[in-house]
Amino acid sequence: MTDLRTLSAAAADLVVGMRCAGCGLPGLQLCQTCRQALRPRARSCWPDPCPPELLTPTPVPPWCAAAYAGVVRAVLLEYKERGRDGLAEPLAGLLVAALRGLFATEASPGGWTLVPMASRRATVRSRGYDGVLLLSRIAARRLRGSGHDVLVTRSLRHRRRVADQAGLNATQRRENLDGALRSVVGRWSRRRAVVVVDDVVTTGATAAAAVSALRDSGAPVVGAAVLAATPRRPGRVSLSAAGEVDTTYRNAPRRVTVQNM
């Protein structure tokens, strides 16, 4: 016998042509199976090789909650490229988990300030929303609801045009973003820790450029949080189910292990 959930999904597809963002099956925006695939596992996700801006003068650990593959990748692409802003709520759960992991390892007596990665104006106009900013605001609201002092500041701006990072190698990404960002905040509270927020980390070039621009303006940057990290080749960055990441580059911070959340 067909259950109520199946009937509801079929009705939704007939009315609005909705398909699951993760698997493409007709039905609701995100089926139960794909929603389960978005369950977060917070972990540190150092790129290898790691951009020096994330290591000196003090380490800026990047945290994620999933590997950028499978259902996570499919849902993020639907959110980023096809204007499905309704996916922001389920995706924000990944960002919340990454931030909780970072908060558990860094001290901030005066609270936290999230700085979303700057989006190109043309991208925001075509999509109709700023994807990383929207996720940051949802995550901040949820974290405040659980007692964390979290604010969101749109500090980063582009100085010049940059190319799409897709398809670029690590060196090309660094060159593409070199000097491309600036911070418009003139004064930062030294008691509030600053965290860079983005959707995906691959080579770390984007996070490095953001950290450099923020530190130039005096921001006390302590980490970066993303939803997902691109899986690396064997022997490089390991995204294990145990939440443990091996860092194999020179002068790397020691291994960090965090319980799944």
Automatic annotation (TrEMBL):
SUPFAM superfamilies, A to Z: PRTase-like (SSF53271)
Provenance organism: Solicola gregarius
Family: Belongs to the ComF/GntX family.
Domain of life: Bacteria
Gene3D superfamilies: 3.40.50.2020
InterPro entries hit by this protein: ComF/GntX_DNA_util-trans (IPR051910), PRTase-like (IPR029057), PRTase_dom (IPR000836)
Protein name: ComF family protein
Residues of the Phosphoribosyltransferase domain: 192-236
